[in-house]
Amino acid sequence: MYRYTRNDFDRVLEFVRGLYEPRSLGAFSDHLLSSLRTLVPSVFNGVVSVEVRNAQQAWTTRTNPPEFVSPELDEIATRHVPESAIFSHFERTGCQQFTRWSDIQPLSQFLRTALYNDVYHQLGVKDCCSLISHSSPTRLEIVGVTLHKQIPDAHRDVLVSISPHLRQAFRLAHTSSALIEMAAMKSGPNGSERGIVAIDPDGTITMETPGATRSLEKFFPKRTARGLPEPLAQWISQSDDTLRKSTDVPKVRRPFVIEQPGNRLTVHLLSRPAQNFLLFEERPWAIDPAALASLPLTHRESEILAYVAAGKTNFEIGIILGISSRTVEKHIEHILDSLGVETRTAAAASALEAANL
């Protein structure tokens, strides 16, 4: 693993801090593309959003420099990328960090693919580092950093180090966008309840939406009027200290999660120098395996599929169920075969449909 210089660390820390500012999804994508260019050299950076359930796989593409990829090339890439070695790698492994294409497929092989000859050759690109982030079981965000030669190990390692922050930032941007779009609505899709709280640096609440009030009252019944519950206040303080006192690449800012029977409240923290924002999202915490009875699966397979649909990795599922990651992988292979699908994303979509979510 590459060892950071002081200058590298300062750039990474500044990049990470910028990810946690409140932005809509579109504004976040634009910020990400420009800030990535200050982090590592590239020919161009891109963000692609894919709706997996759409039979035509609806793609939305942003690049930096803007308009670097023509609509014609973008359309060709839309056809070729799902067949690429890197896309297959992500779907097979559920990898959660930036991965260098040349680590998956030798450059000599990539130069013979239709994706290279029809798209990347015309752009002067020979290698890419990509991260696939699931914003939901049926939607993917793909981030790519490209170069005209093999991406150096040092640049790959920098991108790997910021991967968990980037995945978290995408989730925050989706939640922020949903709050903006649903400001006048009580609840969101799939029975979710959303809200927002704005807090001054001294902890004073300056704004609280009705959705946030309902969630706070439900999950923190001893809460004093208009004050933050102590567990939330402590979590905010610890989260702020993590970034402020970092001497190395900081750990990803984890959300605050609290559960009740059948429900989970997830609280995300966004920061600006003069104000913090708490984003509340309350929803059914998991699919009940019994709700998957219509699928041709065993009880254990239904349990595992429920966790896959909840976004858990093989490692996390193994810990929860007390089995090895390899055993989980074998179960998932059988689940895919039984459902007649090729990817865990498609299997998760089948689970959501069976559970009417």
Structural class, from helix and strand content?
alpha+beta
Overall strand count: 10
Succession of helices and strands: HHEEHHEHHHEEHEEHHEEEHHHH
CATH architecture of the largest domain: 2-Layer Sandwich
Uncertain residue segments = 182-191
Please compute the radius of gyration using only Cα atoms. Answer: 21 Å
Task: Provide mean pLDDT, rounded.
Answer: 83
CATH class of the largest domain: Alpha Beta
The CATH homology group name of the largest domain:
Transcription factor LuxR-like, autoinducer-binding domain
What count of helical segments does DSSP give? Answer: 14
Helix percentage range? 40-55%
Portion of residues in beta strands equals 15-25%
Widest beta sheet: strand line-up: 2-1-5-4-3
CATH topology of the largest domain: Beta-Lactamase
| Biggest beta sheet summary | 5 strands, antiparallel
Number of domains: 3
Give the N-terminus to C-terminus distance in angstroms: 42 Å
The rough form would be described as: globular
